[in-house]
Design a protein that fits this description.
Blueprint: H1 2-36, H2 39-60, H3 63-73, H4 79-103, H5 105-111, H6 121-144, H7 148-171, H8 178-199, H9 209-219, H10 222-234, H11 236-243, H12 246-257, H13 260-280, H14 286-316, E1 319-321, E2 324-325, H15 338-360, H16 367-389, H17 391-416, H18 423-446, H19 451-467, H20 473-482
Antiparallel strand pairs: 1-2
């Protein structure tokens, strides 16, 4: 089992290179944006990207997950046909959806509440969707074939192009928020071109009807489920805009964006986790292994949560020049939501862990129910809390929705694919996190957080992990054994 977990940590580390660097460079762009665009413009670009996230789900409609499922089961001589069936059908559907969105672009602009000044941004959105969708199946194939290094290199090229062009378009050409979309589009085109050598040798000019029906039967339940899931991730932005204004949305987005540190851990884990549990589901000790992985994930995520929550404002408020902070001063009040957003993504990581059972037993029909419940909680909590608590209400709504999804998915999977998780340890970790979070906000609102308060909270967090026997000395030795060895 230890070798299998080491295999997972190695792939997670490689996928994480691109994910971590991408998110970190994205983090670097946040302070950059705050010095070049207003909070109102930050809100406009944020809202457009929320709609872009919804459309990304519609364009792929679960075919990437279906491809991974059936390609992992196919014998070597069938894999080429499986790839071709999935990819060609996605190409055809993407072209149809692109044409439809182009024809309906004006109503779409009005739906997004985009000011006339920025109406042309819809063309960037259309073509970003086109090229990003054409890359999804090839990326899924790289993951399935465990070509993690190639995956990471292509992702890094995309990230560096995006970053470089953002700097160029903002500083030299003064494009404003158009720079963000132009850089994204060019990076997406380059990524697609880089994947062509992976596409050509696996492509035949035939869609196999029986196999396509199997994929659609497996993948289409992902459409409502994924739409509900993405709603949990981004619906707060349009609601914040509707209930407040673009300026408040820009403030909220800044704090929300700094929650990427937990999101990147979940993302890099998910890239490796899905092919890992599919390939190891038949192992005799699979469930024991999955239980141990859940505990290790929650523990690692909890440690990340406390460090980032306590010190992110010190980093963001760092004065690098006279009168200038890393995050422009008018955006700093948005950081109050960071600990809540981080905790929300921790629950998202638990949800990702729990997905294994439904994949393995082919019970994907339950995903729409789980994510639908999360989406309903999210919308209701946003509408209830934002008028009372402002941006903190939006952050609490995200936390409530991810916790709901994790809870309901656990209730379902324990009947379909029961795993004996280490509930005692998991409960103790979550209790320590909640206690630390309550102490954090008590100090924040009542007396103000000093640096010594933060180190005291960090020390208390780590002490409780040992005092409550969440971590033992043997665990540290085992952790060193499963971590990838340095070359």
């Amino acid at each position: 089992m230890r070798d299998k977990i080491k295999e997972l940590t190695k792939d997670t580390g490689i996928y994480g290179i691109s994910t971590i660097i991408g998110r970190f460079l994205g983090f670097l762009l946040v302070p950059f944006y705050t010095h070049f665009i207003s909070r109102g413009d930050m809100g406009i670009y944020t809202n457009i990207y929320a709609y872009l996230a919804f459309l990304n789900i519609v364009y792929i409609y679960g075919m990437d997950a279906a491809f991974m499922k059936y390609s992992s089961l196919a014998v070597p001589e069938q894999k080429k046909q499986t790839f071709s069936t999935a990819y060609l059908f996605v190409v055809l559907s993407t072209l149809v959806l692109t044409a439809l969105l182009f024809l309906l672009r004006l109503p779409f602009v009005r739906l997004m509440e985009v000011p006339d000044l920025y109406r042309k941004l819809v063309y960037y959105v259309i073509f970003i969707l086109l090229f990003d969708t054409l890359a999804l199946i090839p990326f899924a194939n790289l993951r399935l074939e465990r070509k993690a290094k190639k995956f990471a290199v292509i992702k890094l090229v995309n990230i560096l192009i995006n970053l470089g062009l953002n700097l160029l378009f903002f500083i030299k050409f003064h494009l404003g928020i158009e720079a963000i979309f132009a850089a994204n589009l060019i990076a997406s085109v380059v990524t697609f071109l880089a994947l062509l050598p992976e596409i050509r040798p696996r492509l035949t000019c035939r869609i196999q009807g029986v196999e396509l029906r199997r994929m659609l039967h497996f993948g289409l339940p992902y459409l409502p489920a994924s739409l509900a899931s993405i709603m949990v991730q981004v619906i707060d932005r349009p609601i914040v805009l509707a209930l407040t204004d673009a300026d408040t949305l820009g403030l909220y987005q800044t704090g929300h964006k700094l929650g990427i540190f937990m999101m990147l851990v979940v993302s890099m884990f998910q890239y490796a986790w899905q092919p890992f549990f599919l390939n190891n589901a038949r192992e005799k000790n699979a469930k024991e292994m999955f239980a141990k992985i859940m505990t290790l994930f929650v523990l690692a995520a909890g440690l990340l949560w406390v460090v980032v929550s306590l010190f992110i404002d010190n980093v963001a408020g760092w004065k690098f020049a006279a009168g200038r902070t890393l995050i422009e001063a008018s955006f700093l009040p948005g950081l109050v939501v960071v600990p809540v957003i981080l905790l929300a993504y921790l629950f998202n990581g638990i949800y990702v862990n729990l997905q294994a059972g439904l994949y393995i037993e082919e019970r994907t029909k339950y995903f729409p129910l789980v994510t639908g419940a999360g989406a309903l909680v999210d919308v209701a909590a946003n509408l209830l809390l934002i008028p009372r608590l402002g941006i903190m209400g939006a952050a609490l709504a995200v936390l409530a929705s991810y916790a709901t999804m994790a809870f309901f998915l656990f209730l379902i999977t324990r009947r379909i694919y029961p795993v004996a998780y280490e509930f005692g340890k998991l409960a103790r970790i979550m209790a320590i996190i909640i206690a630390t979070g309550l102490a954090y906000y008590y100090l924040y609102y009542r007396v103000g957080l000093e640096l010594w308060h933060k180190f005291a909270l960090l020390g208390g967090f780590i002490t409780l992990l040992f005092a409550l026997q969440v971590i033992k000395r043997d665990d540290l030795r085992h952790l060193r054994e499963i971590l990838p060895a340095r070359d």
